[in-house]
Amino acid sequence: CGILDAQAACRDAVVTQELLKEGFHRDLLLKVELGVVGEDAGGCAVAARTRLPPGIYVDPYELASLQQHNLTKVVLIPDVVDVEAPEYLAPDLLVLLYLEPDPRCTRCFRAALPVHGRYHRPTEEGQEALVVLKSPEVLVCCCDNRLSAPCWTPVEVEAPCSGNASDPCQWYSVTHKPAYEELILQVPVGLRQHGSLVCVVTLLATTLCSSLILAAVCKYGHFS
Fold first, then answer.
1. 6 within domain boundaries
2. Are residues 117 and 93 located together in one domain of the fold?
């Protein structure tokens, strides 16, 4: 009877992810509602572990600035990201995003993560490339073990519960039901026949800017 009661109290968490803004620079909004019936999730840490495909990345310098102002808590694996690499030369990126409690709901958590689309190979048609974001894995850590452990599966995560520099704790994976199995990011792709024009314009612009800088140095510079 106890096993049946525990199973009845366990419901899938509901996960919603949404892309805000337009173009290459977006915000990934994640919302999680834990599915444990009749219990308050206050005091628990909730995180979303998601794997970003090569077509999208997180800027570690931007994250460092946000974390310095306590606007987000994120662990990147690997923590070194080549922000200039195109999609076809970039690896996947594993992200552990800590979610904040939603004051309007005792079992709800949310967080936003700035993400950026990478440049793709130009094509003959110039159509948009599609970057598919799978639904993230929901992780929970409750130090006082107040919630129903039968609802969770222990997982190995080398990250503290609080997001601060402290010893790793025991994380649990929560079964969840995504509002959508995947999210599609549309990234603009250039036309291959425009390659020569882009190279010429870039060369001319670089030459002009270099000439202006050199002229300003010669006119206003102080040489001993």
1. no
2. yes
**Residue 32: which of 87, 106, 143 has the closest Cα?**
106
**Any domain includes 154:** yes
Question: Which distant-in-sequence residues (6+ apart) come within 8 Å of 206 by Cβ?
Answer: none
For residue 130, pLDDT beyond 90 = no
**Residue 96, domain member (yes or no):** yes
Q: State whether the Cα torsion 15-58-171-71 is positive or negative.
A: negative
Q: Measure the CA–CA gap between 128 and 131, rounded to whole angstroms.
A: 10
In a domain, 1, yes or no: no
Residues 89 and 198 placed together within one structural domain of the fold: no
> CB–CB of 43/166 below 8 Å?
no
Rounded to an integer, the average pLDDT of 42-46 is: 76
Number of domains in the chain: 2
Sign of CA dihedral 72, 77, 82, 83: negative
The dihedral through the CA atoms of 188, 191, 195, 198 has a sign that is: negative
Mapping DSSP to helix (H, G, I), strand (E, B) and coil, where does residue 98 land?
strand
CB of 95 closer than 8 Å to CB of 52: yes
Domain range for 215 is: 191-223
Contact 79, 58 (CB under 8 A): no
Count of C-beta atoms within a 10 Å radius of residue 129: 17
**What DSSP designation does 37 have?**
T
User: What's the pTM?
Assistant: 0.76
Helices then strands, counting H and E runs in the chain, come out as 3, 13
Model pLDDT, residue 2:
30
Q: What is the pLDDT of residue 5?
A: 36
